[in-house]
Structure formats: structure tokens, C-alpha cells
Structure to design on (68 residues):
């Protein structure tokens, strides 16, 4: 039997230090972690959240607009 672990949108946002609405917006725009709706709640599978976070931190754009 496979056990899946989910966290709430609020918990996911808390873990990365952003407001819940910011994470909700990222998900709506297709830039956030994969999420599902269970009743009224938006839930994120923990393993998918960690994968998404790893991909986000792997690329660090140059914020100054100058070359490396």
C-alpha cells in the first residue's frame, strides 16, 4: 500500500516563507508546486513540494541584469 503525505497550502507557504496567497497565485499561474483540491482545501503532496522547491532553488537568475 502506498502512503501519500499532504500538507495544506498554508503549511507549504509557511515552509518557504511566503504568504498563502502568493503560493496560491503561483499555483494558479502554473509556476507553483502541483496541488489538488480536497473539498475547500488546496493540498500539496510533500514529495512534489520538495521536487518543485529543488527545481526552484537550482536556478539562480542574475538580478542585476549583468553577465555572470
Amino acid at each position: 500500500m502506498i502512503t501519500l503525505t499532504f500538507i495544506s497550502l498554508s503549511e507549504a507557504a509557511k515552509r518557504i516563507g511566503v504568504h498563502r496567497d502568493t503560493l496560491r497565485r503561483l499555483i494558479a499561474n502554473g509556476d507553483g508546486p502541483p496541488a489538488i483540491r480536497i473539498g475547500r482545501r488546496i493540498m500539496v503532496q510533500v514529495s512534489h513540494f520538495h521536487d518543485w522547491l529543488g527545481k526552484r532553488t537550482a536556478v539562480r537568475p542574475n538580478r542585476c541584469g549583468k553577465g555572470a
Notes: Residues 8-58 form one domain. The longest strand covers residues 41-45.
